[in-house]
C-alpha cells in the first residue's frame, strides 16, 4: 500500500512491479541477477480520485503514455529491494508533483520612490561617465 496523502492511498494490486536485468557495465552476476525494477501504473483503471487522474493525464511527462500508463525503470541501486523502494518513491513524487497548485503571478507596478531611486542612480552613473571623458582645451 502506497500512501499519497492523508485521504488517498494506492493498493499494492494497482502497481505492477517486475524484475528485469539492469543495463550498464557487467560484473560477476551480470547475466544471472535481475536487480532492476520495471514499475507500471495504469492511471484510468486506478482507485485515484478523478482530480488526481485528470492532473496526471495533463502532465507532459515522457514516463506517461497516451493510454495513461506510467512506466518507471529503477536501476540505480545494486539490490532489487532498494530499486523497488526507489521506483515506488518516484511514483509517489510524480503523483504528488501533479497536485501542486502553481500560484498565479499578479502584476504589480513599481512604486514612485523606486522610480525616483532608479532615475537618480542613472544620473549619477551618467555624471561619473562624463567625468571620465577626455578634457578638451
Task: Tell me about this structure.
It is a single chain. The mean pLDDT is 88. The chain has one domain: Double Stranded RNA Binding Domain, CATH 3.30.160. The N and C termini lie far apart (87 Å). It is 35% helix and 17% strand. Strands 3-4-5 form a three-stranded antiparallel sheet, covered by helices on one side. Strands 1-2 form a two-stranded antiparallel sheet. The chain is of the alpha+beta class and 137 residues long.
Indicate the topology:
Elements: E1 2-3, E2 9-10, E3 15-20, E4 36-42, H1 50-58, E5 69-74, H2 80-98, H3 112-131
Antiparallel strand pairs: 1-2, 3-4, 4-5
Shape: elongated
Topology as a string of helices (H) and strands (E) = EEEEHEHH
Distance between the termini: 87 Å
CATH topology tier name: Double Stranded RNA Binding Domain
* Strand arrangement across the biggest beta sheet: 3-4-5
Separate helix tally = 3
CATH class: Alpha Beta
Number of strands: 5
The CATH architecture is 2-Layer Sandwich
Structural class: alpha+beta
Beta-strand fraction estimate = 15-25%
Mean pLDDT: 88
Helix content: 25-40%
Count structural domains: 1
> What profile does the largest beta sheet have?
3 strands, antiparallel
Spans where pLDDT lies below 50 across 5 or more residues? none
Using only C-alpha atoms, the radius of gyration works out to: 28 Å
Amino acid at each position: 500500500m502506497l500512501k499519497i496523502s492523508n485521504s488517498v492511498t494506492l493498493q499494492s494490486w494497482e502497481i505492477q512491479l517486475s524484475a528485469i536485468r539492469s543495463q550498464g557495465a557487467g560484473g560477476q552476476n551480470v547475466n544471472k541477477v535481475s536487480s532492476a525494477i520495471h514499475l507500471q501504473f495504469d492511471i484510468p483503471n486506478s482507485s485515484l480520485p478523478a482530480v488526481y487522474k485528470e492532473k496526471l493525464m495533463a502532465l507532459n511527462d515522457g514516463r506517461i503514455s497516451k493510454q495513461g500508463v506510467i512506466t518507471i525503470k529503477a536501476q540505480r541501486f545494486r539490490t532489487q529491494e532498494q530499486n523497488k523502494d526507489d521506483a515506488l518513491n518516484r511514483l509517489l513524487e510524480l503523483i504528488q508533483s501533479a497536485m501542486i497548485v502553481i500560484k498565479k503571478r499578479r502584476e504589480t507596478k513599481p512604486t514612485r520612490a523606486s522610480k525616483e531611486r532608479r532615475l537618480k542612480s542613472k544620473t549619477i552613473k551618467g555624471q561619473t561617465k562624463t567625468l571620465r571623458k577626455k578634457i578638451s582645451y
